[in-house]
Write a structure and sequence with these properties.
By secondary structure, the protein is mainly alpha-helical. The protein has helices spanning 2-18, 24-47, 56-67, 75-90, 109-132, 143-152, 164-182, 196-218, 255-279, 281-286, 290-302, 324-347, and strands at 223-226, 245-248. The protein contains twelve helices and two strands, in the order ααααααααββαααα. The longest helix has 25 residues, at 255-279. The radius of gyration is 26 Å and the shape is globular.
Length: 349
């Protein structure tokens, strides 16, 4: 009887604490909201970590272990494209660009990183479809690569009908099929041609991407730009007139987005170039271009150095505070200049 009375008394006190007159229920709700907000914040911090680099050699061995085939020309680039695409989808937090619920909804750095990676994936998958897999302009397209490039081209923010990540999975599966076919010695229908002209064509996409990223990063401090759109050609014309001089400056809220897009792009390019070094070893040696490629890879690796400050600073070029965007632009500009030189080497007879 005494135990029952004590239990009843505790239950009564608990109900009194939760009664509206004591504000207990309100406190409990506020505590639950605070705990939920803290959990969402911590998950967001964890999801905001950038993936680590991986070994392209170990990766191709893992990928070919599925089919049991051997390493041949083109397997490293194809396997690296698969791994980069999978990392974009399977990193901590998964694919965040099309999230409609927190914490992915309020995160913008990693979605920008994903966009940078995705643009490079699209460019390489297009080059695979149009160049690397074809012996000449009149040859037919590979059926697997016909699927990959269009699926990677789906809007990165689409979350339903179709969901972006579902389309990208279809593209990755088609790349797995292509990888198995080119590494199968009994299958002569699927090919990868390591030629200087094919490599130079893809490097042009990389050059244009890096040039755009470098320009966007430099505009973090504002830039007075002279119009050089038609310079060097007296007969050149453009559709719409533009001012002779323009002031360009990245909006304050977009600075970190531009920076992380550049981080994602250089992360993907770094791995692709490491695969190029192995798949195009003979071509690079013939053009005496191996050292040039390795220097570009070094610049890409430097662009991936860890950040030791949680906020992307936008100090002026010679101000008190650092400017992460200008530092990134420095590495990208040097790599871009080296890629221009490399393309010239490849295009020489």
């Amino acid at each position: 009887m005494i135990i029952e009375q004590a239990q009843t008394s505790r239950w009564q006190r608990f109900k009194e604490k939760l009664s509206p007159s004591n504000g207990g229920l309100k406190k409990l709700i506020l505590l639950a909201i605070a705990l939920l907000a803290s959990w969402v914040l911590l998950i967001g911090v964890y999801w905001s970590g950038e993936p680590e680099p991986f070994s392209v050699s170990d990766n191709v061995s893992d990928k070919l272990a599925i089919s049991g085939n051997r390493i041949v020309t083109g397997t490293l680039m194809t396997a690296t494209l698969i791994k980069v695409s999978e990392t974009m989808l399977d990193k901590s937090g998964g694919y965040l660009s099309n999230d409609v619920m927190p914490p992915g909804l309020y995160l913008d750095n990693i979605p920008s990183w994903e966009l940078g990676v995705l643009k490079q994936v699209r460019d390489l998958s297009r080059s695979l479809r149009e160049g690397f897999s074809r012996s000449q302009s009149q040859s037919t397209e590979d059926p697997d690569l016909q699927i990959a490039f269009p699926r990677f081209s789906v809007d990165n923010t689409s979350w339903l009908f179709p969901a972006a990540e579902s389309e990208y999975r279809v593209a990755i599966n088609s790349l797995y099929s292509y990888l198995a076919r080119i590494s199968d010695p009994s299958n002569a229908d699927a090919q990868f041609y390591a030629r200087a002209d094919n490599l130079a064509s893809w490097l042009l996409y990389v050059e244009l991407s890096l040039g755009s990223l470098s320009q966007n990063l430099s505009e973090s401090v504002g830039q007075q730009k002279i119009n050089t759109n038609t310079a060097g050609d007296n007969g050149a014309a453009q559709s719409t007139p533009t001012p002779n001089e323009q002031k360009r400056k990245t909006a304050w809220l977009e600075i970190d987005d531009v920076f992380y897009e550049a981080r994602g792009a250089t992360w993907a390019i770094m791995h692709f170039l490491k695969a190029v070094e192995l798949d195009f070893e003979d071509v690079l040696a013939d053009k005496n271009a191996t050292a040039s490629l390795r220097q570009i890879i070094r610049e890409m690796e430097e662009s991936q150095r860890p950040l030791f400050f949680p906020v992307i600073l936008n100090g002026s070029g010679f101000g008190v505070f650092a400017n992460h965007s200008l530092t990134m632009a420095n590495y990208i500009s040097r790599a871009n200049a080296a890629i221009i030189d490399l393309r010239r080497l490849l295009e020489r007879g």
